[in-house]
Design a protein that fits this description.
The complex is a heterodimer of chains A (239) and B (149). Chain A is mostly helical. Chain A has eight helices and no strands. Chain A has a single domain, classed as Up-down Bundle (Four Helix Bundle (Hemerythrin (Met), subunit A)). The mean pLDDT of chain A is 90. Chain B has two domains: 33 residues; 110 residues, OB fold (Dihydrolipoamide Acetyltransferase, E2P). The chains are: A mainly alpha (239), B alpha+beta (149). Chains A and B meet through helix 2, helix 3, helix 6 and helix 7 of A and helix 1 and strand 6 of B. Chain B: Its main location: membrane.
């Protein structure tokens, strides 16, 4: 059933109207969540006003890891079914994923200075997240080099698969090791964040996720267009 | 078996191998990757005197004592099983208080006490507005009671 959407022409027909819808809804939800988080919630009993950084930090952490999940799924689909759109979707996740991983690290550092008393410590959670950021950079360099050398994208796909190892490490780092970073506040079923502070978070979480999806579609369309330009140039040169 | 199924099996096998390898590496790293020692870890087998280590746990209730010079403090770090006396001189982080998490950087002395040259406050996963603090304190007392039993 997915093969129907794997046709680039059909993909473009759906992606073209979907891109602005995702981006504008995402911006509206994230902006509302940010406004509510900055003005409509009480400060934390211990951290005071610095708690508000969580409305950006948590979505950034989620998308930093979600971006690599996208790369992993696209890579597996490409390795098994050899569909070029799958490789394209994996490559399109890399730059926004790296950006959100960086935002996660920076906001975490800004929060850590007043809360912990330090900008950075080499604890399990912080170190594994920094590693993911570097692995993103390596993936971006590798897939670009592979594209320029006319490779078939199999090597970046294998790298995307291998990098998946970091996701459970980041997720469980605060469980396996004693770390400076606090344990998990949110799981699917329960939260140790009081509802008065928590409620704007789903807005920024969904908002940034839609924005991320919109950016991925935009990048995929740009890559398809670049491929078309290249093919036409080659035909013109041959004629 | 079609080529597609063969590739699917190969990718699946690759994923399982990667996860297994990382699981082994992680369990081997267990102690090495710990950010700090808990008091129970160092009872009887304290790291050598003079080696830079971190000690983490809760600041015991009522244990923070200001020293005569005005900049030094002494307190006790506990994990419920053991406790270690700590001394520190300097500015403490805002979140450093009794019954809350702390990570002290420094070294052990020969008598088993800990000389800290830096304090980090550890925050837990609970977030709540200030007016709920009273309720939380009540719940916490209950927690410690059950832990003691």
């Amino acid at each position: 059933m997915f093969h129907a959407y794997a046709n680039p022409a059909r993909f473009l027909k759906i992606a073209r109207p979907l891109t602005p819808m995702l981006i504008w809804t995402g911006i509206a939800l994230a902006a509302f969540g940010a406004w509510a988080g900055l003005t409509q919630t009480p400060p934390d009993y211990l951290q005071g006003e610095t708690v508000r950084i969580l409305y950006l930090h948590v979505p950034a952490a989620w998308l930093g890891m979600g971006g690599w999940s996208g790369i992993a799924i696209g890579s597996i689909a490409y390795l098994v079914w050899r569909h070029p759109l799958a490789a394209l979707s994996a490559r399109a996740c890399a730059v926004p994923g790296a950006l959100f991983a960086a935002v996660c690290l920076i906001t975490g550092s800004i929060w850590g200075r007043p809360t912990w008393g330090t900008w950075w410590q080499w604890d399990g959670r912080l170190t594994s997240m920094l590693l993911l950021f570097f692995v993103y950079l390596a993936y971006i360099a590798l897939s670009r080099a592979d594209g320029q050398r006319g490779g078939d994208g199999r090597i970046p796909a294998l790298f995307g698969l291998a990098g998946t190892v970091l996701l459970p490490i980041i997720r469980y780092s605060v469980v396996w090791w004693n770390t400076l970073h606090q344990g998990q506040s949110l799981t699917l079923t329960k939260s140790t964040i009081d509802n008065a502070i928590l409620w704007p978070l789903p807005f920024t979480l969904v908002g940034f996720t839609l924005l991320f999806a919109g950016i991925v579609l935009m990048r995929m369309r740009a890559m398809l267009a670049a491929g078309k330009v290249e093919a036409r140039m080659r035909r013109m040169a041959a004629a | 078996m079609k080529a597609k199924h063969q590739r699917l099996a190969l990718v699946g096998l690759g994923l399982v191998t990667i996860m297994g390898a990382s699981g082994l590496a992680l369990s081997a790293l267990q102690d090495e990757a710990a950010f700090f020692y808990a008091p129970a870890d160092v009872v009887g087998k304290a790291p050598p005197v003079g080696r830079a280590v971190r000690l983490g746990g809760m600041v015991e209730a009522g244990s923070i004592k200001k020293q005569g010079d005005g900049v030094s403090i002494a307190f006790t770090v506990t994990d419920g099983k053991a406790s270690v006396p700590v001394t520190f001189s300097g500015i403490t982080p805002d979140l450093f208080k009794e019954k809350s998490g702390v990570v002290a950087e420094g070294e052990f002395r020969a008598d088993g006490s800990f000389a800290a040259d830096n304090l980090l406050a550890k925050h837990d996963e609970r977030y709540m507005p200030p007016q709920m603090k009273g309720k939380m304190a009540a719940a916490e007392t209950l927690d410690t009671k059950t832990a003691q039993q």
